Amino acid sequence: MFASLPLTALLLAAAAVSAQDIVYDAAHNTTPIVGTWSSGSQHVVPGPGFANPAQESFTYPNTTGVGYSFSDDGWYEIARYRFASNASEPNCIIGTVVWAHGHYELVANGSIVLKPIGDGYQQVQAPCAATSNFMQNYNFTELFVSWQIFTDVAFGPKLHLFQFDGSPVAPLFRLSEQPNMLPKQMLRNVSAAVVTTTSNGLVSEQTLTPRQKRSGAAELQCPMGLVAGQFLIYIHIIDSHVSDRLHTQRS
């Protein structure tokens, strides 16, 4: 489901899009990126109406889509609700619901890096898989090689994000100039330290990560009129200094 690419491959992909620092002007950046954005029917909106990390649950929107919020102090939040069909197995429709938040950086070459803080999670429903419905951790750094904001005469500001390979995300429409977000802090317990003292006085500590994969989630309801689609490609960037490398290598 997820694509994991080496950091060097991502850097080369980004470098192919832009070899010099981008200059933001009114021709393609009519408004700041700060605010709340949503695709399609605009029912998928980040914030408390979508996810409850403490309970590891979701409130399912009426339609599928994706939503982003960006704050002026470098925080982002994402909400995704997706179904993807399988041409060879039409009955095996896979659904995903994703929530994550963390810090973003607008890199000088025009790319955006989203770095989660570690408490994101997703629900996956795959009726033809061994485990058909489960929750699991979701914390992947994502790279968008470029972005643009145009003013649509009918809908106002419209944000276009382009993934690491240049493919576009569905156009996003601005719902609000203010970011709709949950609190900017860790909201879900994803690890616990277990300290053990032996009879001879030795102390050991082990970090556990509960609920890496938990079944029994509520059933996703596939919207009417579903057509074949594709999952977004989620990018693993292991290097904690990816932003610096993006600067120095002009990727």
Automatic annotation (TrEMBL):
Keyword Transmembrane (UniProt): yes
GO molecular function ontology, one term from the record: unfolded protein binding
Bilayer topology annotation: Single-pass type I membrane protein
Main location: endoplasmic reticulum
Gene Ontology CC annotations of this record: endoplasmic reticulum membrane
Presence of keyword Membrane: yes
Alphabetical UniProt keywords: Endoplasmic reticulum, Membrane, Signal, Transmembrane, Transmembrane helix
Signal peptide: 1-19
A Pfam match: Rot1
Subcellular location per the Swiss-Prot or TrEMBL entry: Endoplasmic reticulum membrane
Domain of life of the organism encoding this protein: Eukaryota
GO biological-process terms attached to the record: 'de novo' protein folding
Similarity remark: Belongs to the ROT1 family.
Name the UniProt record assigns to this protein: Protein ROT1
